[in-house]
Amino acid sequence: MSQITDPEIRKALDSCITSTRHPNLPNPYQGKVRDLYKLGGKRLGIVVTDRISAFDYIMKQAIPYKGQILNRLSAFGFSKAEEILPTHVIDHPHPNITIARECTPIPIEVVIRACLTGHAWRTYRSGKRSLCGVRLPDGMVEHQKFSSPILTPATKAQEGHDEDISEEEILNQKIVEPDLWQQIKEKSFQLFEKGSQLARQQGLILVDTKYEFGLYNGELTLIDEVHTSDSSRYFYADGYEERLKKGKPQRQLSKEFLREWLMEQGFQGKEGEQLPDLPDPFRWSISQRYIELFETLTGNSFTPHVTDHFGEELVEAFSPYLE
After folding, report:
1. String of DSSP letters for 27-47
2. Is residue 142 part of a domain?
3. How many H-runs (helices) and E-runs (strands) does the chain carry?
4. Is the pLDDT of residue 2 over 60?
5. Beta bridge partner(s), residue 115
């Protein structure tokens, strides 16, 4: 790849938000992508950084504008999800920041899949015909749609890799009570239908996505993010059937291309593998893909928020919620 010479691109690459610690704020809990601050009144300050992860590893290099794109995409998704169930969102005082209700998290990621793609395809290709307790029919090809979307949960690991789990195991291990699990299932499929409808309107197919839930005052609440490019995979609808028939790769908007690039470098997150560096031109191309998804999905143009004073803006955004 050629070197980046454009001064604005160079500045964007060198100014990514990777850490948000500030002397006037308590230390945050640091997730893969988000930094979480405990504020007053059972509220959280969620800062979406420019960090990017794949195979449950945080890449050594960050992606320009990724945090604000992700936060804006999630704001868009949450605004639509509120028609189905409560969300944790209180406010978005900054392009990178969400103020949210502090919920008791449910330690399960709910993954809904409409197509045999990504992890599901790799499992299928290995010869297995069951995924999280869901029986997969013989004779399917990569990216083929299921007869109806399937639910494939995963445990929400504090450290390391999330693990596939079946509904039966969730109930047998009493991770979630049966009535609550039934509610989670119903709301997840409703959310997926809503997300699919919004995607269709923009010429996209919502291929798969994950949802996370919590309880706020005992009420099921949608948390984390929804229908973003980090939590979801989208195909362009135009040409999907033709590409499927010819066995060609689908045109997609997701992080799968990053996973594919990492696998080409010999990295799949397994023990002993060395995490590769992301070349600057590749980092910039990832940024452009995030922008493309934002503009395609929302129908809005993206104008980056550029600042040399993020720390001050962070404190200002949090200040009304500290007490």
Report:
1. PPEE-SSEEEEE-SSSEEEEE
2. yes
3. 9, 17
4. no
5. 145
pLDDT, averaged across the chain:
93
Among 70-84, 132-146, 155-169, the range scoring the smallest mean pLDDT is 155-169
pLDDT in tens, 89-113: 999 999 999 999 999 999 999 999 9
199-225 residue pLDDT tens: 999 999 999 999 999 999 999 999 999
Q: Is residue 21 part of a domain?
A: no
Q: Is 299 part of any domain?
A: no
User: Among 83, 78, 116, 125, which residue's Cα sits nearest to residue 98?
Assistant: 78
The C-alpha atoms of residue 56 and residue 255 are separated, in whole angstroms, by: 12
Token pair recorded at residue 294: 């934002």
Q: In the chain, how many domains are there? A: 1
Q: Provide the domain limits for residue 236.
A: 105-257
The span from the CA of 158 to the CA of 155, in Å, is 9
Segment (H or E) for 182: helix 178-201
Distance CA(54)–CA(236), nearest Å, equals 22
Query: What's the predicted TM-score (pTM) here?
Result: 0.89
Q: Is the pLDDT of residue 77 over 80?
A: yes
Alpha carbon distance 321, 317 (integer Å):
8
CA separation for the pair 112, 148 (Å, rounded): 10
Average pLDDT on 166-193 reads 97
Task: Name residue 236's beta-bridge partners.
Answer: 204
Listing DSSP states for 252-309 in one string gives EESSHHHHHHHHHTT-SS-TTPPPPPPPHHHHHHHHHHHHHHHHHHHS--------S-
Q: How far apart are CA 123 and CA 187, in angstroms?
A: 26
Residue 58 domain flag: no
Q: What is the CATH number of the domain that holds 119?
A: 3.30.470.20
The dihedral sign for the CA sequence 188, 189, 194, 198: positive
Tell me which residue of 84, 89, 74, 105 sits closest to 213, measured CA to CA. Answer: 105
What SS3 state is found at 196?
helix
